[in-house]
Structure formats: structure tokens, C-alpha cells
Amino acid sequence: MKERDICEITCVDDEKTVRVQPLIEKANIFDVTKLFKALSDETRMKIAYALTLEEELCVCDVATIVGATTATASHHLRHLKSLGLAKYRKEGKLAYYSLDDDHVKQLIHIAFEHQEEVAERG
User: Fold this and answer.
1) Could you read off the pLDDT of 17-49 as tens digits, one per residue?
2) What angle do CA 21, 24, 28 make, to 5 degrees?
3) Domain 14-121 is of which CATH architecture?
4) What DSSP string describes 51-106?
5) CA-CA distance, 18 to 51, in Å (whole number)?
6) What global pTM score does this model have?
7) In 5-110, which ranges are E strands?
8) How far apart are CA 109 and CA 1, in angstroms?
């Protein structure tokens, strides 16, 4: 017989729900969701991961690394910047991008570590 992965009766823990529900309601869920949506795009994740491996890359380098045109890479980099995940600086005619801060780098590294563990477990 297959195990059911749902509650078979209704049994709400009022103490937990009263404690957690207000915290969920006041959390900035919408903006955090936008962050994860941005990283759910394969090209943007490749770019973000590349920026964890190198502190800074110009748009041309990013395009080459991810196999995209400079216009496509630039579009994705601007999107990451608009969400506060990346920042850029201009040096002459070159635009260099880096991750906004160490939190972004940690998120990406944790996601890859987690995925490796899941793959190892099978």
C-alpha cells in the first residue's frame, strides 16, 4: 500500500499557527519571490554562478561564458541589477558586473551545495 503524504485528519496546532501566520503576513514575500524568479531563469543562473567564481566580469566575458550575444547577456545583467542582485561599473567603454553583495553569493553557493547533496542521495 502506498503511503499518503497528506494529513488524513485535520489537526491544527494553534500555538504554531498563531505565532507563524503574522510573521508570514508581514514578511516581504513578494520581493523575495521576484529574487527567486530571477534566478529560476537558466541563463541568469549561469551568469550569477559565473559571478560567484569571478568577482567581476565585463558584459563581453559574460556573453562568451554563457554562450549568448552581448545584447542578451546585457539584458539579463540589467535584470539582475534591477532586482538588487548585481551591480556594475563603467571603465571607459566597458561595463563590468559583479554580484551586489556576499548574501547573493551565499544564496547561489547554498543552492548548488543543496543540489549536489540531493543528487548524491539519489
Assistant:
1) 999 999 999 999 998 999 999 999 999 999 999
2) 160
3) Orthogonal Bundle (1.10)
4) HHHSS-EEHHHHHHHHT--HHHHHHHHHHHHHTTSEEEEEETTEEEEEESSHHHHH
5) 41
6) 0.85
7) 57-58, 86-91, 94-99
8) 39
